[in-house]
Amino acid sequence: MGRILAIDYGTKRTGLAVTDEMQIIASGLTTVETKDLLVFLKDYTVSENVVKFVVGEPKQMDNTASESEVFIQKFLKQLAKVIPEIPVERVDERFTSKMAFQTMIDGGLKKKQRQNKALIDEISATLILQSYLSSKS
Questions:
Q1: pLDDT tens-digit profile of 56-95?
Q2: Residue ranges of the domains in the chain?
Q3: Contact of 12 with 119, CB cutoff 8 Å
Q4: Rounded to whole angstroms, how far apart are CA atoms 72 and 57?
Q5: CA-CA distance, 134 to 136, in Å (whole number)?
Q6: Using an 8 Å Cβ cutoff, are 124 and 132 in contact?
Q7: How far apart (Å, rounded) are the C-alpha atoms in residues 90 and 68?
Q8: What phi, psi does 66 have (nearest 5°)?
Q9: Which positions carry the signal peptide feature in this UniProt record (predicted)?
Q10: How high is the pLDDT of residue 111?
C-alpha cells in the first residue's frame, strides 16, 4: 500500500507523522525546521514508499481559513514542484495543538517536557494523521 505522511506546517517548525505500510497505525516521525522541510521530504520519499501527504488545514471557529493558511498555500505550491508525484489531501486541524498538549498531560509528561514545542508539533501531526485514518475507515 505505502505510507501516508502527515504535515503539521508551521513557519518555524513542522511536525511530521507517518503511517506504517498498511496504513493502520499513525506514529510521530519527527519535527523539522521549516526551512529544511522540502529537502527532508524529498530525501524521506526517496527512501520510503510514501503514497500521500496529509496536510493540516487550520481554520477559525467560523470555518474560515486562519492567517497561517497563506504560508501553507505557498508551501503546497513548492511541494507540488519538488514532489509532484505524491498527492496531497487536507485535514481540518482545529484543536490539534490543544489535544496534543492534553495528550502530553495524560501521558504523564512533566511540565518541562510539555514545554517542548517540537514534541507538540510532532504529536499534532500524529493527531492529524489519526483523524485522517479514522475518517477513511
A1: 887 666 766 667 889 999 999 999 999 999 999 998 876 5
A2: 3-136
A3: no
A4: 8
A5: 5
A6: no
A7: 14
A8: -80, 170
A9: none
A10: 73
- pLDDT tens, residue by residue, 1-59: 999 999 999 999 999 999 999 999 999 999 999 999 999 999 999 999 999 999 988 76
Residues recorded for the chain: 137
pLDDT at 20: 96
**Helices 117-136, 96-106: crossing angle, 10 deg rounding:** 110
CATH topology of domain 3-136: Nucleotidyltransferase; domain 5 (3.30.420)
Strand arrangement of the beta sheet that strand 3-8 belongs to? 26-33, 13-19, 3-8, 50-57, 88-92
CB atoms within 10 A of CB 3: 18
DSSP of the chain: --EEEEEE--SSEEEEEEE-TTS--EEEEEEEEGGGHHHHHHHHHHHS-EEEEEEEE-B-TTSPBPTTHHHHHHHHHHHHHHSTTS-EEEEE-TTHHHHHHHHHHHTT--HHHHT-HHHHHHHHHHHHHHHHHHHH-
Model confidence, pTM: 0.84
